[in-house]
Write a structure and sequence with these properties.
This protein has helices at 2-12, 17-40, 58-63, 67-99, 105-117, 120-131, 136-143, 157-182, 186-194, 199-226, 229-237, 248-257, 261-289. By secondary structure, the chain is mostly helical. It is built from 13 helices and no strands. Helix content is 75%, strand content 0%. The model is unreliable at 1-10 (pLDDT under 50).
Length: 290
């Protein structure tokens, strides 16, 4: 009897064979990510990193009167609010188009996946060459007697960064949507066509409900990937870019450069807290709608 219990725990229990395969990754994640993060949170409640004293939530309160932090927060929310929905819409449209293609689907999919494997640093030279004041795009505009545009140092910097984000990340969500579309039974659409349903009705009552879990996952991943746009912004424009693309990552990077660890860790804690509650809200909403 005890042997049967042991076999059952080995197959379905906590200490299954799969758990031991994941254990090295869990140890590494906990040791190099979770533990340093928890340790750094101590600085959020101190007035200075060395020989500091406990000051409670003073660092958090100071953030909401800091103009640089508030500007970075507003710009980050604006960027996510525009780029994440656009990423979902465009990648879903591409996935639905590819889902209808029978011949050459792999080649078209590969075309949209290429940006994922190109390092960001390798593309910085291209984007600089394209959007700089004396770059290729302004050169083409001058051929049509249009004056030069300062793409990276004006309000147009935000649309440029959104374009770079979409180019980089649409392929990832496209793969998620293709996987979701392949799991929808064809019988659903055949029954809808027999009832003379339109394409919009089929999308509303079949495609969207079946893709809802994929939508939530793709939206969360789009938000996470939107924070990675800092690499491109930093490499193209430096520490202090145009005001409309100054993000929270710029603020944190500048706090790190100035060794202001209490303000850095308090800003990080707020960001993690916001992301946690927002993700939980999306998951609960998905379960309720489903």
């Amino acid at each position: 009897m005890s042997m049967n219990i042991g076999l059952k725990l080995g197959k379905n229990g906590f200490f299954s064979s799969g758990f031991f395969f994941v254990l090295p990754g869990l140890i590494g994640f906990g040791l190099f990510f979770i533990f340093p993060f928890c340790l750094s949170m101590i600085y959020a409640f101190m007035d200075k990193p060395v020989n500091g004293s406990f000051i409670g939530f003073a660092n958090f309160r100071s953030l909401f009167v800091n103009r640089a932090y508030l500007r970075g927060l507003a710009n980050t929310i604006r960027f996510i609010g525009i780029s994440a929905p656009l990423n979902l819409i465009i990648s879903l449209a591409i996935a639905m188009m590819l889902n209808k293609i029978i011949r050459g689907r792999q080649w078209f999919s590969l075309l949209f996946l290429v940006p994922l494997v190109i390092p960001s640093g390798s593309m910085v030279f291209f984007w600089k060459t394209l959007f700089s004041y004396d770059g290729a795009l302004n050169g083409m505009l001058q051929n049509f007697s249009i004056s030069k545009i300062n793409w990276l140092d004006s309000v147009l910097a935000l649309p440029v960064m959104i374009l770079i984000f979409l180019w980089k990340n649409c392929g990832y969500n496209m793969i998620l949507f293709l996987a979701g579309l392949s799991n929808i039974p064809k019988d659903y659409y055949e029954a809808a066509w027999m009832d003379n349903a339109s394409s919009f009705q089929a999308f509303r009552h079949i495609t969207f409900p079946c893709l809802l879990p994929t939508f939530v996952l793709a939206f969360i991943m789009s938000i996470i990937n939107s924070f990675k746009i800092f690499r491109e912004i930093y490499l193209i424009t430096g520490n202090y870019p145009q005001e409309s693309i100054y993000t929270l990552q710029h603020f944190m990077n500048n706090m790190f450069a100035s060794l202001n660890y209490p303000r850095l860790t308090s800003a990080t804690a707020l960001l993690v807290l916001i992301m946690f509650f927002f993700t939980q809200f999306l998951l609960r909403l998905e379960r309720r709608v489903a």
